[in-house]
Design goal:
36% of the residues lie in helices and 15% in strands. By secondary structure, the chain is of the alpha/beta class. It folds into two domains: 241 residues, 3-Layer(aba) Sandwich (Aspartate Aminotransferase, domain 2), CATH 3.40.640.10; 133 residues, Aspartate Aminotransferase, domain 1. The strands form two sheets. It has a seven-stranded mixed β-sheet, with helices on both faces. A five-stranded mixed β-sheet has the order 8-9-12-11-10. Bound molecules: pyridoxal-5'-phosphate. Pyridoxal-5'-phosphate binds next to helix 3 and helix 4.
Length: 379
């Protein structure tokens, strides 16, 4: 089945006993065994649960992956992937990633003996150089990066790791399979904060890992069961329901974001505007080759931190909150929120200043969003 058909029928045809079109929620911790040595396929819900399995199989089909595992949050998904590496191994990572991912790597990855090399992964030559360092076993890229929206060329990086013993992981939270499929471009693992576009309604926290090979799937599922940070059946159902509208939502997020970015691009108070959907954006051409839509996240600078504070206090349609990827448009101040834990030197190097604003463009009428920004920028 094609992608939109898979999405529209997410969770359907899975309950032959009743013919339920909407996948039922199975809030059962354990499952009765027919006899000793026999199983219905489900034993204990940490290991596998019918509602979670419906979600995992749907995502695996969307990603053309060998399998997928659903976690309690995006960070739990990243933590599970981090546990595939062994002490002494080195992972090359995007330097301007989501602050929580950097915190996880620095606080827990390092104490497990892992080493992280931070590079600008939008520059394939810098990645190639880093991959030559001794002990490198992983490449972890955010596409595009949060919040600087730098775009890595996944196909080019896929060629760099090809036939090397390097696990290539892409955090595709900002685009989803409805726009880009990193496994097709040479990645081994694609992962998500499903809290964002996959969920899409600001009403759940979830994470997903989908892998190219059965062996990787088995290893991730082992961590999922052994560590236990699973997605519960209710959230699994909610996420399945959200998937039905994923490609519709992604298209509208992209259309709205482009209109807002075009407005901001001509505004005299805006500097360093980043939106890869704009032809003038440095990441545009690369992303256009590998993605169908450009997502709904925009970042830009104004003249000062005081100006940011005035804008945050003035918006009436945007809400000041720290997430992205859902129906409601949000405005975020990364230095004080999502990236508060990033050290000052790194922030300076990647351009994450205290006059930077991140917008997550939702599904509202774009004219209301533009009018709101226009009046907040006048305040
Ligand atoms: C790109 C990216 N990856 C991972 C995460 C972490 O996901 P969660 O908040 O669902 O744990 C986030 C959260 O903002 C994110 O933006």
């Amino acid at each position: 089945m094609r992608q939109d058909t898979l999405l529209a029928q997410a969770g359907a045809r899975r309950d032959p006993a009743t013919g339920a079109i909407s996948m039922p929620v199975y809030p059962s911790a354990a499952f009765q065994h027919p006899a000793l040595g026999q199983s219905t396929g489900f034993d204990y819900s940490r290991t596998s649960n019918p509602t979670r399995l419906a979600l995992e199989e749907t995502v695996a089909a969307l990603e053309k992956a060998a399998g997928a595992s659903a976690f309690a949050s995006g960070l739990a998904a990243i933590d599970a992937v981090m546990r595939l590496f062994r002490s002494g191994e080195v992972i090359v990572v995007s330097e301007d990633m989501y602050g929580g991912t950097i915190r996880l790597f620095e606080k827990f990855g390092k104490s497990a003996g892992l080493e992280f090399l931070y590079v600008d992964t939008s520059k394939a030559d810098l990645v190639a150089e880093a991959l030559e360092k001794p002990g490198v076993r992983g490449l972890f890229v955010e596409l595009p990066t949060n919040p600087m929206l730098r775009v890595a060329d996944i196909a080019a990086l896929g060629k760099l790791v090809h036939e090397k013993n390097i696990l290539f992981v892409v955090d595709n939270t900002f685009l989803t399979a409805a726009s880009c499929r990193p496994l097709d471009l040479g990645a081994d693992i694609v992962l998500y904060s499903a809290t964002k576009y996959l969920g899409g309604h600001n009403d759940l926290i979830a994470g997903i890992v989908a892998s190219r090979t059965p062996e990787l799937c088995e290893n991730v599922a082992f961590v999922q069961n052994a560590v236990g940070a699973i997605l519960g059946p209710f959230e699994s159902w909610l996420l399945l329901r959200s998937l039905k509208t994923l490609s519709l939502r992604l298209s509208r997020h992209g259309e709205n974001a482009l209109k807002v970015a075009e407005f901001l691009q001509d505004h005299p108070r805006i500097r360093n505007l980043r939106y890869p959907g704009l032809p003038a954006d440095p990441g545009h051409a690369v992303l256009a080759r590998q993605a169908g839509t450009f997502g709904g996240v925009i970042s830009f600078e104004v003249e000062s931190r005081e100006a940011v504070e005035r804008i945050l206090a003035s918006v009436r349609v945007f809400m000041f909150a720290e997430s992205l990827g859902a129906a409601e448009s949000l405005i975020t101040f990364p230095v004080a929120q999502t990236h508060a834990d990033m050290d000052a030197k790194t922030r300076e190097r990647v351009g994450l200043t205290d006059s930077l604003i991140r917008l997550s463009i939702g599904l509202e009428d774009p004219d209301d969003l533009i009018a709101d920004l226009a009046s907040a920028l006048e305040a």
